[in-house]
Write a structure and sequence with these properties.
heterodimer, A: alpha/beta, Rossmann fold, 6-stranded mixed β-sheet, 4-stranded antiparallel β-sheet, 28% strand, B: alpha+beta, 2 domains, 12-stranded mixed β-sheet, two-stranded antiparallel sheet, 14 helices, 14 strands, 56% helix, elongated, disordered N terminus
Chain lengths: 223, 436
């Protein structure tokens, strides 16, 4: 599903060139449930950005679902993100002025699904995460755990092949964290690849495979 | 299996909707924009008010400027703006052994000389008054009206408008006919309703004159209380002895410099004929309306300049205000933009979303400002009435100018939103979303 071959990425900071990823190789198969761990500065975020087609890389090859992702136009990148990927963030990032249903429906807006249809589909997905009754509520009226479930529903609605979760439980207590992770597990059972970036061992222990990153290279593949 | 079917359904919808995208009006997009505006009342209100106020003030300013100009122009409606008036005076400087204080008396020869020797005259007329104690009598009733004894050319000096019959003509003057053109208010006063003044006879100082015409005058009611008779008739009938009380000429469309030259030539002509010093400004009084009008034209230019300057300033303030708010809105929405990008929004769709929102708000607010401004001007117009108030009258605006200003505000407001929107659309979604 995901093939990274000798990926390099560096940032220019003043006169210095900071190498963040150093000829990194990684492959993740379809339906895997993996976590990526590493101290800050290890290149976690950069790796996530590249895999999420949110950033470009300098050298190497990134193949996502048999498609070479390299030097894409912004438009094409947006298209692939919309078609292949779902994102879940630490701070949920729901639009505060939209209710739960409209938030979930947003990716379909960018697929040009009409309003009535996409709200219908959004309700189905809210039902799947157990929040059908909260459809008309705005994010401020919901708990953190509920908001994250809405965010997961939003990630699912576009029928992604991969879901990237960037510290998805960072803002949640242990119990809600577990609920969210259970939801991820359920989703994973349907065959969707899930990649979680975290620094919490309790979270990574719940995944099938832990990839450890240090200084821009993979320290442990977790096999 | 069910999931697969659903996925297919979405694919099909995707294809159908893609066709819809080809239509000019993307209903779904507008729905999204209107929804966003509806949920952000404060920032919408702030943007809208900035634009509304800018256009509103601009319309008022332009209206007030035009009102002032109309008022001053109205003030000038009485006499032809291209006329030169010559009145007799008294010498104030000794000249060739003659003492000062000598009364200068114009006569028919002076008038002829002016017409013969001064170049550039379009129309000319002498004007005498019938003096003494008398009344205008019609059907044994006496009335008090001014009598002016003139040539046909007088009509062009005073801007008289014939409403019935005719004004004096050359034949009236050369044959010294006993005919009279009467003002509108004269006719209203002396005739009963339904009586046709034309062909009736009125007595002026005991001499019957046949009424040949009724006129109106842009100069207002007083000008319409005059009666005009031929100069030559009065000269014979009232023993004016070829004297001329004053004379007027019009200068066509000569430029101001030419009319000033004419004024000096007339001065010289009278100084020669009546033997007074050219330096003597009291001997005769020459009044060039062209000069007065020129100074008014300069005033207009000044007003227009000021209105333009303040107007551009107002517009600029509006643009900067809108730009500022757009900048704040975009930075406030950085997170939202990042998220939309992560969910599959293209940079262009982000930019067009921000732009369409700003253009939508500014257009409506600008239009409302225009409507309220014009409405207020209309109310003012109604309040001060057609007579005007002092130098202020009929405030109006060039609607094209106002529309242009609104369009400019909308365009620049959009542009002010475009630059930060483009920047926001280019940022990395992960960065935007991590920003707390």
């Amino acid at each position: 599903m995901i093939e990274l071959k000798k990926i390099s990425k560096s940032y220019q900071i003043g006169q210095n060139k900071l190498e963040v990823l150093k000829s990194l190789d990684l492959s993740i198969a379809q339906g895997e449930f993996v976590s990526i761990m590493g101290p800050s500065g290890s290149g976690k975020s950069t790796l996530l950005n590249i895999m999420g087609i949110l950033d470009d890389y300098d050298a190497g090859e990134y193949i996502l679902s048999d498609t070479l992702i390299k030097n894409l136009s912004q438009k094409k990148a947006a298209y692939y993100r919309n078609q292949f990927l779902g994102f879940v963030f630490q701070s949920f990032n729901l639009l505060h002025f939209k209710n739960a249903m409209e938030n979930v429906a947003l990716p379909l807006y960018y697929q040009k699904v009409n309003r009535k249809k996409r709200n219908e589909i959004a309700l189905e997905y809210l039902d799947r995460v157990g929040l059908k009754d909260w459809a008309e509520h705005t994010p401020s009226e919901m708990s953190g755990g509920q908001q994250q479930r809405v965010a997961i529903a939003r990630a699912l609605i576009g029928k992604p092949k991969v879901i990237f979760a960037d510290e998805p439980t960072g803002a949640l207590d242990t119990q809600t964290s577990n609920e969210v992770m259970d939801l991820f597990k359920e989703v994973n059972k349907e065959g969707i690849t899930i990649i979680i970036v975290t620094h919490e061992d309790e979270i990574s222990e719940m995944t099938d495979r832990v990839i450890r990153l240090r200084d821009g290279v993979i320290e442990s593949y977790g096999y | 299996m069910i999931e697969k079917q659903k996925f297919k359904k979405i694919q099909i919808i995707h294809q159908v909707s893609f066709k819809n995208q080809l239509y000019m009006f993307d209903f779904d997009k507008w729905q999204e924009i209107i929804e966003t505006i509806r949920r952000h009342k404060l920032r919408t209100a702030l943007t809208a008010f900035g634009v509304f106020w800018g256009i509103f003030m601009l319309v008022l300013l332009l209206g007030a400027g035009n009102g002032l100009q109309n008022g001053v122009e109205y003030d000038f409606r009485d006499d032809a703006i291209n006329s030169i008036w010559i009145r007799q005076g008294r010498t104030s400087i000794p000249y060739k052994g003659m003492k000062p204080g000598r009364q200068i008396q114009f006569n028919k020869e002076d008038f002829n000389a002016v017409n013969a020797q001064i170049e550039g005259i379009e129309h000319s007329t002498p004007r005498n008054y019938v003096r003494g104690d008398f009344s205008v009598v019609y059907k044994n009733k006496g009335y008090n009206f001014n009598i002016r004894c003139t040539y046909p050319g007088h009509r062009y000096v005073e801007n008289s408008i014939v409403s019935q019959g005719r004004f004096l003509n050359d034949k009236d003057v050369s044959d010294a006919r006993k005919v009279a053109a009467i003002g509108h208010l004269v006719a209203e006063t002396i005739y009963e309703k339904g009586v046709d003044p034309l062909g009736t006879y009125i007595q002026i100082k005991g001499i019957p004159f046949k009424v040949i015409g009724v006129f109106k005058d842009t100069g207002g009611p007083n000008e319409m209380k005059n009666i005009y008779i031929p100069w030559s008739t009065a000269n014979q009938a009232y023993n004016h002895q070829n004297k001329v009380h004053q004379m007027m000429v019009t200068t066509g469309d000569l430029p101001i410099e030419e009319t000033e030259k004419m004024t000096r030539q007339i001065e010289q002509l009278f100084a020669d004929r009546h033997r007074f010093s050219i330096e003597d400004k009291q001997a005769i009084h020459i009044f060039n309306n062209n000069e007065r009008f020129q100074s008014i034209l300069n005033l207009f230019a000044g007003i227009r300049g000021l209105v333009g300057f303040v107007g551009i300033g107002t517009l600029l303030a509006g643009i900067i205000g809108v730009g500022n708010i757009m900048l704040i809105i975009v930075s406030e929405r950085t997170k939202e933009i990042g998220l939309r990008k992560a969910l599959g929004a293209t940079p262009n769709s982000i930019i067009s979303m921000v732009l369409m929102e700003s253009i939508f708000i500014t257009s409506i607010a600008g239009y409302l400002g225009l409507l309220c401004g014009v409405g207020l001007l209309e109310l003012m117009n109604l309040a001060i009435g057609p007579e005007g108030a002092g130098m202020f009258r009929n405030p109006e605006i060039d609607i094209n100018l106002a529309l242009g200003a609104t369009a400019m505000l909308v365009i620049f407001g959009g542009l002010a939103g475009y630059l930060p929107a483009r920047k926001a659309a280019a940022i990395n979604p992960i960065e935007a979303l991590r920003e707390e």
